[in-house]
Amino acid sequence: MSSRPSGAEPSVSFPALVQEFFTDYLIGQRALSPRTVAGYRDAFILFLTFTHQHLGRWPAAMKLVDITPALILAFLDHLEQERHNSVGSRNARLAAL
What we know:
This protein has four helices and no strands. By secondary structure, it is mainly alpha-helical. The protein has a single domain, classed as DNA polymerase, domain 1, CATH 1.10.150. The model has no long low-confidence stretch (mean pLDDT about 85).
């Protein structure tokens, strides 16, 4: 017997959510160009790499609840201070997230 309340949806893994975002939303619903999707992909790679180093957790083990405003702000600060990204580049990555 499941410990989940009756009618509750099973939780979806974070990797499945990311995949759905790219395939169903960006490509399927928004029909974004391959270059735009690649830009979003690159932003996610940077963010997941930062998150792994910051939280010590592999992306496949992450949960949506792990992505807090504080984590996103730390990532954006990292982009400016460590990677020396411009404000425009920082904002483009924020838009991807």
